Amino acid sequence: MRIAVTGGNEYTEFFLGILAAGKNRVTVIDRDKEFCERVCGAYDVDAILGDPCQECVLEEAGIRNFDVIVALGPEDTDNFEICQMGKKIFGIRKTLCLVRNPRNVELFEKLGVDQAVNIPVIIAGML
């Protein structure tokens, strides 16, 4: 499976390690050059340096050829925008995003994100 992952943070780095251990072709898209270099050195992933909120950066990454896009950035609005572009402009089959504000989970899913994830909501659901 071809998976694009956006947002350079501790979640992203851990997630990339899990994905790279499988039989996935993974590309990270982020504006932080050091992060891109670090994950490429640590895992079998490709990296595109640029702002994933910009359509031209996603186009350059060849996003049309991906199966899934996972947005793990720090801003809910950016993650939503990335998923929306992936689905509506590039025809990505499945979109997932991390949301910090639990109120955005239902809203983002109603607006077309396949899976909006809020960690406290998931933990509460496990209780």
Automatic annotation (TrEMBL):
GO terms for biological process: potassium ion transport. Residues 1-117 form the RCK N-terminal domain. Keywords: Ion transport, Transport. This is RCK N-terminal domain-containing protein. It comes from [Clostridium] citroniae WAL-19142.
